[in-house]
């Protein structure tokens, strides 16, 4: 039998092989990431593994996919459910972007600490919003919905195997093999010719709308390795002549602990795609939709920590607006140094980030009773704090990634009221609850505190 986490690890690895064949520059990115990680490990030793073992980090990927209808999304949820991945978080990219990205998103990922440690594969999954009148008028919406209703992204055999794997939390070897084959194939780029006129109609609204609703299949949009030093990776990719977007998104590179998520990417590459022209002939065309992204992960922050992050981003935005030509990265570094605690201990004490706690193994047994309260236990050396890794995404970075890689601005009619899509609506579409990421981090933190409390009370007897 192949268990869920083994299916997840195998799926991630096979998807990576497939994507490397389709987008060779991705393989370069993975190679350079691996070299950077090895160098960081050599230079920093055990400290480099503070936010995940080198085994986890080397295998770690996130993918991105995009689908068109609630029904398709519910099917995606069954496939990832088979792999022990659950929908976490609601991201509204219609609001996060300066121009048109007509999607709402969630991320499928493992939620349990042990499962994340085994293989943390996650997939950022976006759903087109045809009911949003800012992007689609009634006529285009109707045409789009008819087109989407007539396609099948996932064969019934794949979905049946997925349901079995989810219910039984494993599959027999031969079924696992078949499931993995069908699942990876479902995300390959289809050779079927693209209807050029229909694609162009949607492209006028948004290149993302065309990528999703302009074709009769879906595909992996990008696959992202994790790197331990993203600034170094950026330099090495640029040295190889690969054209990167001009920034690293997310928090700045500063002297304090790494928080949340930093990401950068290389620009989408033109890929050959067969096109069917209005008179029915098939020609060789090219589309730029798929790109390479890389990320560095930091510590998960609490709602207070997140509010601070958003406030500081705003502050940097305002400074940049006032002083054209400002070095944004340098400005962000200064702002952070002023407002963000520079040690893990202080982040924990101020309730800005999440940690798990464990009883210190090396504290001398001097017969004293432990104090109460996490902060005091920590200060007196009774317990140690280990940071929780941020396992999720950032809407503003996501919108930036979407945009910096698409040609064409698209259009959005801001006179119209946007359609209401929210987390509850998405849960309904999925037929499963969209989980709150903060609740997941907090649960992990609280469990460790309860454990510590039990252990110390026993010790004292
Ligand atoms: C998803 C963009 C978001 C990220 O890492 O923030 C994303 C997409 O392009 O479909 O993957
Ligand atoms: Ni991504």
TrEMBL record:
Gene3D superfamilies: Uncharacterised protein PF07063, DUF1338
UniProt xrefs under InterPro entries: HGLS (IPR009770), YdcJ_bac-like (IPR047869)
Family: Belongs to the 2-oxoadipate dioxygenase/decarboxylase family.
The entry's keywords: Dioxygenase, Iron, Oxidoreductase
Classification lineage: Bacteria, Bacillati, Actinomycetota, Actinomycetes, Kitasatosporales
One matching Pfam family: HGLS
Entry annotated with the keyword Transcription: no
Superkingdom in the source lineage: Bacteria
Cofactor needs: Fe(2+)
Name of this chain's protein: 2-oxoadipate dioxygenase/decarboxylase
GO molecular function, one term: dioxygenase activity
PANTHER family per UniProt: 2-OXOADIPATE DIOXYGENASE_DECARBOXYLASE, PTHR39479
EC number from the UniProt entry: 1.13.11.93
